[in-house]
Design a protein that fits this description.
Main location: membrane
Protein name: MFS transporter
Strand content: under 5%
Number of helices: 17
Structural class: mainly alpha
Subcellular location: Cell membrane
Shape: globular
CATH topology: Growth Hormone, Chain: A
Membrane topology: Multi-pass membrane protein
Order of helices and strands: HHHHHHHHHHHHHHHHH
Keywords: Cell membrane, Membrane, Transmembrane, Transmembrane helix, Transport
Length: 446
C-alpha cells in the first residue's frame, strides 16, 4: 500500500491578511517604542517632571483600563474589530500630532501630557481588546499560538532596534521630533489594516445582551473558570507592582544612575534582545517545559531578575558600570516575560468561546490593568518619600508574592493546559486571494 505523506501546514507568513496585520503591528510598534523613550525623556529633561509627576503621567496613560475597560469588551464584541483597530490608530496619531505641534511652539506642559495620555489610553483600550480578539478569527484557533508568537517577536525586534536608534537620535534631535515619527507610523499602520480583505460576520443584533449582563457574562467567565481565575488574579497583582517600577525607570536611570538618553537607548535595546530570544524559543520551550509549567516558572523567575534594576545603584556605588546589571537582568527578564505572555494569551484564546472573546479580553485587562492608574501614583509617592531605589525593592517583593498563586497551583505540574484543540481554522479563504499577495513583503522578519 502506497504511503501518502501529509502536507505540512503552511506558515502564517503565507497568509495574506495576517501579513497585513503583522506589518501594521510592526509599524505601530516602531512608533510606540520611540514615544515610550521620547515622551518620558521630554517630561524629565525639558519639563523638569518630578517622581510624583511621572506617576501621574503613568496613571493618565492607563486610566482608561479602569474607567472603560469593561464596557469596551462588550462594545467590541458587537463591532467589526478591524474597524476598531483603524479608528484607534487614527485617534492616537492625531493626539500625538497635537503634542508635537504644542511642544514645538513652546506650549508643552505636564497637564498637556496628562491629557494626551488619557485620550491615547482610551484608544489603546479599544485597540488592545480588538487586537487580542481579532487574531483567532483571522487565522483560526489552530494557528493562534503561531500568530501570537510572531506578533510578540515583532514587539521584541522593535524593542531591540528602536530604543538604540532613538537614544542616539535624541542627542541631535528634540524629543517631539521622535514622537512625530509615531504619527507617521500610525498613518502607515492604518493603510495596511484597511487592506485586510477577510470580512467579519457580526452576530445578529437580537443576540446582544444588554450592556450590564453582557459585561457580567465576561467577568463570570474570567472569575469562575478554573485555572483562568488564578491566572488573572496573579497577573493583576503583578501588574500593580510592575507598573510602580516601570513608571519610574527613566526617572531612576537619569537621576539616580546618571545615564544619558543615548545610554538609556543602548540599555533598553541590549536587554530587549532577550525578547527576541524568548519569542523565537517560546514554542520549543513550551514543548520541553510544558504549557502550564512555563507559565508558573516564568512568572516566578521574573521578579528575581527585576532585582537587577535596584542593584544597579549598588554596582554604581562600588564603581562598577551600572549598565551591566540593567543589561543582563533585562535580557533574561525579557526571555521569561515573553514565554509567559505567549503562553497565557494562547491559553486564554483557546479556552474562550469566540462570541465571548472581546468581553473575556476586556475583563482580563480590566482586572489586570485596572489598578495601574493607582499603582502609578502610589509608586510616585513611595519614591518621593523614601527614594526610588526603596520603591524598586518594594516592587521585587510584590512581584514574588504575585507569582505564588501560580506556583502553588496545578499550573506548576501540567504539561498540557485545557482548551479546545479540536477547532479547525476559521479562515476558509485560500492562502492567496486573487490579486493580492505579491506586493506584500514575504520576508517580513519575525
Amino acid at each position: 500500500m502506497e504511503h501518502v505523506a501529509s502536507t505540512p501546514e503552511r506558515s502564517l507568513v503565507h497568509h495574506p491578511d495576517f501579513r497585513r496585520l503583522w506589518v501594521a503591528d510592526a509599524l505601530a510598534q516602531v512608533g510606540a517604542q520611540l514615544t515610550a523613550l521620547a515622551l518620558p525623556v521630554y517630561a524629565v529633561t525639558t519639563l523638569g517632571a518630578t517622581a510624583l509627576q511621572m506617576g501621574y503621567l503613568t496613571s493618565a496613560q492607563t486610566a482608561a483600563f479602569l474607567v472603560v475597560g469593561l464596557p469596551a469588551g462588550a462594545w467590541v464584541d458587537r463591532m467589526r474589530k478591524r474597524s476598531v483597530l483603524i479608528w484607534a490608530d487614527v485617534i492616537r496619531g492625531l493626539v500625538l500630532a497635537a503634542v508635537v505641534v504644542l511642544a514645538s511652539v513652546g506650549l508643552g506642559s505636564m497637564p498637556m501630557l496628562y491629557a494626551a495620555g488619557l485620550v491615547i489610553s482610551v484608544a489603546t483600550v479599544f485597540f488592545d481588546v480588538a487586537h487580542l480578539s481579532y487574531v483567532p478569527g483571522l487565522v483560526g484557533l489552530s494557528k493562534v499560538s503561531e500568530g501570537n508568537t510572531k506578533l510578540q517577536a515583532t514587539y521584541s525586534v522593535a524593542a531591540v532596534a528602536v530604543p538604540a536608534v532613538g537614544g542616539s537620535l535624541l542627542k541631535v534631535l528634540a524629543a517631539p521630533v521622535l514622537i512625530g515619527v509615531n504619527v507617521v507610523t500610525y498613518i502607515a499602520s492604518v493603510g495596511f489594516l484597511a487592506r485586510i480583505r477577510k470580512v467579519e460576520t457580526l452576530p445578529p443584533k437580537d443576540s446582544h445582551l444588554p450592556l450590564g449582563p453582557a459585561i457580567a457574562e465576561g467577568l463570570r467567565f474570567i472569575t469562575r473558570t478554573p485555572m483562568l481565575n488564578r491566572l488573572v488574579y496573579s497577573t493583576g497583582v503583578s501588574a500593580l507592582f510592575s507598573t510602580m517600577g516601570w513608571s519610574m525607570i527613566i526617572y531612576y536611570v537619569v537621576t539616580t544612575l546618571g545615564l544619558g538618553a543615548d545610554a538609556i537607548g543602548v540599555v533598553m535595546s541590549a536587554s530587549a534582545v532577550g525578547g527576541i530570544l524568548g519569542a523565537v524559543t517560546a514554542r520549543r520551550a513550551t514543548d520541553v517545559i510544558g504549557e502550564g509549567r512555563i507559565i508558573a516558572f516564568s512568572a516566578f523567575l521574573t521578579p528575581f531578575l527585576f532585582a537587577a534594576i535596584p542593584l544597579a545603584s549598588t554596582f554604581k556605588d562600588l564603581g562598577v558600570d551600572a549598565r551591566i546589571p540593567l543589561i543582563v537582568g533585562g535580557f533574561l527578564m525579557q526571555v521569561t516575560q515573553t514565554w509567559f505572555n505567549v503562553s497565557q494569551v494562547s491559553f486564554r484564546q483557546r479556552l474562550c468561546p469566540p462570541y465571548l472573546l472581546g468581553r473575556m479580553n476586556a475583563s482580563f485587562r480590566f482586572i489586570v490593568w485596572g489598578g495601574m492608574p493607582i499603582a502609578g501614583v502610589v509608586g510616585g509617592l513611595i519614591a518621593n518619600h523614601f527614594g526610588v531605589v526603596a520603591m524598586l525593592w518594594v516592587v521585587v517583593v510584590g512581584e514574588i508574592l504575585a507569582a505564588l498563586p501560580l506556583m502553588l497551583s496545578p499550573f506548576r505540574t501540567m504539561r498540557v493546559l485545557p482548551g479546545n484543540r479540536q477547532v479547525t481554522a476559521l479562515d476558509d479563504e485560500p492562502d492567496e486571494a486573487p490579486g493580492t499577495g505579491p506586493d506584500e513583503p514575504d520576508d517580513a522578519r519575525p
